[in-house]
Task: inverse folding
C-alpha cells in the first residue's frame, strides 16, 4: 500500500537492503537494523493475550448453547499467536530495512527535486522515524482529548491544530496560533451553532 | 414494460421545481458532509435525518437520495485528495486514487471517480427498476452457511490476494476481527473483553477505527518523515483539469467491470459497498500485473475507476433491496429504513402496491441525483483539488481537528478520543512496517457477520460442520475461493522465480 513497496527489495537477504546508501543510518550496523518490525508480531501477540485473558475471565450465562461467545474469539486468539510467531521468524531470518522515499524513475519531477530527495535520503539518522515530530502530533492529540471538556472545543481544538502544525515543521508559532483559533472557531460555529452538534463550550461557555 | 411506464410517472412526480430543488440541496449538503475527513454518506444521512422530517414523505426521500449519493461523492473526493475516506466503501479508492493525486493528477482522479460513480449508479438504478422482484427471490435463499462463506471469501480475498505479504495481511485481519469482538455479544448477551469498562459495552465503533487507522495514522506517518524526505512532502496539484481521451479509454473497461462486480452485492447483506469495492480493486490489480507496463502503485486510473463504479452500483441495488425486500444492507440503508418507519411506511414488496408514487418517485430521483451530482462535481473537481494547496502543517492540523470532531460528534465521549489516539498509533506502526490496513477494516466490518452466521449455522445443525457445505451456493463460493487462492499462489511463485533469476 506504500508507494515504495513495489520497489523495495523486500526479500533480499541480510544487509543487502541498504546497499544504495552506505551507512545510511546511524543504527545500520546494529542487530536491530531492519528488525524493528518485530514490534508488529509483539503487538499482535499482546492483543491475542488480551483476548485470551478476556476468554478465561468471561462469565458466560448458564444454558448458553455451544458454540458460545468465547468460540469465535478463541479462534482469533489462536490465529493471532500463530501469525505473530511466523512473522517474528520472518523478521529474524530476513530483516526489512526501511527506505527513505526517493522518486522512482517513472515519476515526473525535475532533476533538482530528484537530487534533493536523494541527498535527503543519504542523511544518517539514529531512527528511521522522526519521533520528535510524532510526539508533537500524538501529544497534541492526547492533550486535546484530556482537556476537551475543561477548555471547551475552541481552545482544545486550537491546541491540537497548533501542536500538529508544529510537529509538521511549521516555524511560525504565532501565525499558527491565529490559524488554529480561526479553524477551531469556524468548526464550532458551523457544527455546534449551525448544525446543532454537541461540542463542549468549556471555560468560554455562555458566550455562544 | 409496465415498469417503464411507472418510472415515467415517477419522473413526472419528481420533476416539480420544488423537488428538483430538494435534490440539489440534498446533493450539496451530502457532498459537503462527505467531504469532511472521516465523515461519510451514512454520517451525512444521519446528521440530516431530523431536518427532513419537516417535509412530506416524497420530498424527504428525494432529498435523502441526494444526500446519500452526495455523501458518497464527497467521501471519495476526500479519500482521493487526502487519503481520509469517511467510510469503508471509499477505502479501496484511496489506494490508487490518492497516489494519482500525489502525482499531480488530482483533477483527473476526481473526474474518474465522478464518472465511475455515475456509470455504476445509473446501471444499477436501471437494473433495480426492472429486476426488483427477481432480486427478492435470489436473496431469500441466503442462510447462515451462505453468509459465512461470503464473509470468509471477503477475508481471504482482502488479506491474501490484495496484500503484498500474506502474513502481514493476515496479521491485520486478525487485529480487525479481534477489535470487532469487543463489547456485549449479540447472541448470548455476554460481556466480552470490556473488563468492566462501561464505554466498551457497545464495542469499539467502526467510525473510530476507520478515522484512527486511515486519517490519524496518516497524520502520524507523515509527521514521522516530513522533515527528512522531500519526496514525501511533494504533492503537486497541476496538469489538465479533465480526462484525456486516452485516459478515458483506459478507464472505461474498469468502470464497466467494477459495475458488473458491484451490482449483485447490493442484495447481499455483507456490510454494504465495501466488499465489492475491494474485490473490484483486487481484480483490477491482478489484471494489471499481466500487462506489459503495470500501473498499480504509481496511481493507476483503473485501480480507482473500478472500485468507484462498484461502490455506486452496489449502493444503487442496495436501495432496490431496501425498497423491495425491506432489507437494509448497510448502515445508511438502515438509517433510511428508520426514516421510512417514521412516516409509518414499511419497505418491502407491499410498499410497491401501497405507495407506488413514493417508490417510483424515489427511484426517479436516484436518476436525477446522479445527473445533478455529475453536473456539480465535474466542474468542482479542480476546485476541490485546490484544497491540496493548503500548506502541509495546516492541512494535517486541520485533518487532526476533523478526526477529533468526527469521532466526538458521533459519540460525545472523551473515552473514544483516547481510543482514537491509541488505534491511530497502531495505524502509524502498521504503515511504518507496510502492514496493509484494508484487512483490518474488512475484519472489523464483516467480523460480526462471520461470527453470528458461524454460530447460527452450528447451532441449527447441532454442531455438525457439514452444514457449511450442504447448500449449492456456499460450495460455489468455496470453489471460487480456491480458484482465487490458486491463481494468487501461482502468481507469487512466478514472481519469486523471476526475482531469483
Result:
Amino acid at each position: 500500500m506504500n508507494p515504495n513497496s513495489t520497489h523495495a527489495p523486500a526479500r533480499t537477504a541480510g544487509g543487502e537492503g541498504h546497499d544504495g546508501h552506505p551507512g545510511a543510518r546511524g543504527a545500520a550496523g546494529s542487530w536491530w537494523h531492519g528488525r524493528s518490525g518485530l514490534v508488529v508480531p509483539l503487538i499482535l501477540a499482546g492483543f491475542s493475550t488480551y483476548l485470551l485473558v478476556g476468554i478465561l475471565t468471561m462469565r458466560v450465562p448458564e444454558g448458553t448453547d455451544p458454540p458460545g461467545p468465547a468460540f469465535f474469539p478463541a479462534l482469533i486468539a489462536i490465529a493471532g499467536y500463530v501469525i505473530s510467531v511466523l512473522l517474528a521468524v520472518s523478521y529474524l531470518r530476513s530483516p526489512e530495512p526501511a527506505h527513505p522515499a526517493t522518486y522512482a524513475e517513472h515519476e515526473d519531477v525535475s532533476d533538482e527535486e530528484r537530487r534533493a530527495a536523494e541527498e535527503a535520503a543519504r542523511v544518517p539518522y539514529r531512527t528511521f522515524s522522526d519521533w520528535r515530530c510524532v510526539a508533537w502530533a500524538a501529544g497534541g492529540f492526547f492533550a486535546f482529548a484530556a482537556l476537551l471538556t475543561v477548555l471547551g472545543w475552541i481552545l482544545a481544538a486550537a491546541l491540537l491544530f497548533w501542536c500538529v502544525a508544529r510537529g509538521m515543521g511549521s516555524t511560525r508559532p504565532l501565525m499558527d496560533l491565529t490559524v488554529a483559533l480561526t479553524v477551531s472557531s469556524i468548526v464550532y460555529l458551523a457544527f455546534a451553532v449551525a448544525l446543532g452538534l454537541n461540542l463542549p463550550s468549556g471555560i468560554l461557555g455562555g458566550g455562544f | 414494460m409496465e415498469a417503464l411506464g411507472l418510472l415515467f410517472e415517477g419522473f413526472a412526480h419528481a420533476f416539480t421545481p420544488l423537488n428538483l430543488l430538494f435534490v440539489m440541496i440534498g446533493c450539496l449538503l451530502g457532498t459537503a458532509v462527505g467531504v469532511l475527513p472521516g465523515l461519510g454518506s451514512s454520517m451525512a444521512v444521519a446528521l440530516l435525518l431530523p431536518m427532513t422530517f419537516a417535509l412530506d414523505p416524497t420530498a424527504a426521500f428525494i432529498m435523502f437520495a441526494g444526500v446519500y449519493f452526495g455523501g458518497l461523492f464527497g467521501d471519495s473526493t476526500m479519500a482521493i485528495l487526502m487519503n481520509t475516506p469517511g467510510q469503508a466503501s471509499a477505502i479501496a479508492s484511496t489506494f490508487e486514487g490518492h497516489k494519482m493525486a500525489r502525482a499531480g493528477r488530482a483533477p483527473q482522479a476526481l473526474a474518474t471517480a465522478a464518472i465511475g460513480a455515475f456509470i455504476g449508479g445509473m446501471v444499477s438504478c436501471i437494473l433495480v427498476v426492472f429486476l426488483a422482484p427477481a432480486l427478492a427471490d435470489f436473496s431469500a435463499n441466503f442462510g447462515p452457511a451462505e453468509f459465512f462463506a461470503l464473509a470468509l471469501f471477503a477475508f481471504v480475498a482482502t488479506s491474501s490476494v490484495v496484500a503484498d505479504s500474506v502474513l502481514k495481511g493476515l496479521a491485520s485481519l486478525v487485529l480487525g476481527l479481534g477489535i470487532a469482538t469487543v463489547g456485549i455479544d449479540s447472541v448470548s448477551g455476554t460481556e466480552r473483553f470490556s473488563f468492566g469498562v462501561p464505554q466498551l459495552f457497545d464495542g469499539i465503533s467502526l467510525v473510530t477505527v476507520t478515522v484512527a487507522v486511515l486519517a490519524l495514522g496518516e497524520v502520524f506517518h507523515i509527521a514521522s518523515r516530513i522533515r527528512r524526505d522531500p519526496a514525501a512532502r511533494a504533492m503537486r496539484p497541476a496538469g489538465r483539469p479533465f480526462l484525456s481521451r486516452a485516459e478515458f479509454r483506459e478507464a472505461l473497461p474498469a468502470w464497466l467491470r467494477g459495475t458488473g462486480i458491484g451490482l449483485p452485492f447490493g442484495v447481499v447483506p455483507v456490510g454494504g459497498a465495501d466488499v465489492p469495492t475491494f474485490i473490484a480493486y483486487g481484480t483490477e490489480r491482478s489484471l494489471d500485473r499481466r500487462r506489459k507496463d503495470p500501473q498499480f502503485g504509481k496511481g493507476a486510473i483503473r485501480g480507482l475507476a473500478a472500485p468507484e463504479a462498484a461502490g455506486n452500483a452496489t449502493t444503487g441495488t442496495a436501495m432496490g433491496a431496501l425498497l423491495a425486500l425491506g432489507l437494509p444492507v448497510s448502515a445508511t440503508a438502515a438509517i433510511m429504513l428508520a426514516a421510512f418507519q417514521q412516516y409509518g411506511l414499511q419497505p418491502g414488496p407491499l410498499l410497491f402496491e401501497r405507495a407506488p408514487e413514493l417508490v417510483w418517485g424515489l427511484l426517479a430521483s436516484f436518476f436525477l441525483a446522479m445527473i445533478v451530482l455529475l453536473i456539480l462535481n465535474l466542474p468542482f473537481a479542480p476546485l476541490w483539488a485546490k484544497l491540496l494547496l493548503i500548506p502541509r502543517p495546516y492541512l494535517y492540523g486541520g485533518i487532526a481537528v476533523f478526526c477529533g470532531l468526527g469521532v466526538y460528534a458521533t459519540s460525545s465521549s472523551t473515552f473514544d478520543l483516547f481510543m482514537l489516539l491509541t488505534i491511530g498509533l497502531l495505524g502509524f506502526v502498521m504503515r511504518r512496517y507496510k502492514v496493509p490496513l484494508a484487512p483490518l477494516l474488512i475484519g472489523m466490518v464483516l467480523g460480526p457477520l462471520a461470527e453470528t452466521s458461524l454460530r447460527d449455522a452450528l447451532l441449527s445443525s447441532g454442531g455438525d460442520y457439514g452444514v457449511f457445505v450442504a447448500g449449492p451456493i456456499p460450495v460455489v463460493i468455496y470453489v471460487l475461493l480456491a480458484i482465487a487462492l490458486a491463481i494468487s499462489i501461482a502468481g507469487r511463485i512466478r514472481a519469486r522465480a523471476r526475482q531469483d533469476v
Notes: DSSP finds six helices and no strands in chain A. Chain A has two domains: 14-122, 131-204. Chain A touches chain B through 98 residues (CB under 8 Å). The CA atoms of residues 142 and 199 of chain A lie 17 Å apart.
